[in-house]
Design goal:
Layout lengths: L35 E4 L15 H14 L3 E4 L6 H11 L6 E7 L2 H9 L4 E7 L2 H8 L3 H17 L3 E7 L6 H14 L3 E6 L6 H12 L5 E6 L6 H11 L3 E4 L13 H9 L3 H7 L5 H11 L17 E2 L2 H9 L17 E2 L8 H10 L6 H15 L6 H17 L4
Parallel strand pairs: 1-2, 1-8, 2-3, 3-4, 4-5, 5-6, 6-7, 7-8, 9-10
Helix pairs in contact: 1-2, 1-11, 3-5, 5-6, 7-8, 12-13, 13-14, 14-15
Length: 412
Amino acid sequence: MPSPSNNSPGSTPLNRNPYGHGTQVSDFLSNVSRFKIIESTLREGEQFANAFFDTQKKIQIATALDEFGVDYIELTNPCASEQSRLDCEAICRLGLKAKVLAHIRCHMDDARVAVATGVDGVNVMIGTSSLMRQHSHGKDMEYIKRTAVEVISYLKTQGVEVRFSTEDSFRSDLVDLLSIYAAVDQAGVHRVGVADTIGCASPRQVYELIRVLRGVVSCDIETHFHDDAGCAIANAYCALEAGATHIDTSVLGIGERNGITPLGGLMARMVGTHPEYVKEKYRLDRIKEIEDLVAEAVQVNIPFNNPITGFCAFTHKAGIHAKAILNDPSTYEIINPADFGMARYVHFASRLTGWNAIRSRAQQLNISMTDEQCKECTAKIKALADIRPLAIDDADSIIRAYYRNIQSGETP
C-alpha cells in the first residue's frame, strides 16, 4: 500500500519550512543567506540621546554580542576622547572571537591612533554629499579621493582590515560616489561602505545603488541605514538582495536620532527567509538578554511591538486567530518564538476570545469540558468582558466556577 503523500491537502510537506513565505527567487548576487553583521552599539549606539557606557558596561555589552555571534564589533573613534581610546584598548585585550573595529575620520592622525589601540580593522569615513562637503569638512572630491587613498595605503601597511565609507551616500552625486569607490577599491580596501546617514533612502533606491556599485567594485560592500523614515530593516534586506555583504546594526536600533537597523529586527527578518543560516550562525536565544542589558543601560523600555522581544510579539487575541494558532502556529506566525527562546501567548480574557482558546485554557487548568460546555463558558466570559476589562484571574475564576457547577449538577 503506498504511503500517503507529504503534500496532501491540509498537511505540511516535510521538506518545507512552515514558517517560510513560499518560493524564494534566487539571484546569484544576493547575499541574504551569507551576510555578516557589524555590530555598532558601542559606536553608533553611543550617539543615542540617553547613552553613557562606562568601561565595564562596554566590556559587558561587547562580551554579550560576541557570545551571540556577531562578526564585528565597531567602537567609537579612539580620538573622540582619552577614555574612548582606553576603552578601545581594553576591548581589544578581551580576545573576542568577533573582530574589533575602530570608526575614524578620513585623517592620518586618526588612523595612527586607531592602529595603536590594537584593533583588527579600521572603518574610515568622510562625507561626500554637497551638504556634508559644504557644512561639515569643507573639502572637494579631489581632496577626498587623494586623502582616502593615502589613509588606506597607510592602514594596509599596518596589517589591519580597512573599510572606506561615504557619509550621506544617497544624497551624493552618483558619478562622485562611483569615482571614489572605484579609487579606494583599486587602493585595496576590504570593504566599501554605503551610508544612509539621514534615513532618506527607500528600498528601491537602496537596491538600485547597491546593484550598480556591485558592478563597479570587487571588494565587499558594507551598508549602514538610519531609521528616520522607518525603512532601516527593509533597506538592509534589499541591500543584501542586491549584493551587499555586511550590515551595520545596533541593539534596539539605538543611535543618532531614531538610530539604525536593529539587531533583533534584522534577525527576525532574516530567520523568516533563511532560517538555516541564521540559526546555525547566531545564538538567537541571546537576543532578549542582550536587549534587556542595553535597555537598562540607556534607561528605556523595550517597545511593546518590538520584533521578537516586545511583550505583544507572540500574543494572539482574536478568536479566529487563536483557533488557528492552537491547531498550527505557523498560520499566524512567520517566526517560531522557540527559535529565540520565547513563547507564544493566546490571550483569552477578552470579548474577542473564542471557545477554542477557552478549551485550551481549561486543559491547562486540568479541567475537562465538552465543546458545548466550553462554548457556554466562553459566552459567560464575553458577557463580563463587555462590561469591564478582564484579568487572567477573572477568566480563570469563571472557568472554575462554571466547572464546579457542572460537577455539582447545578445550572451553570
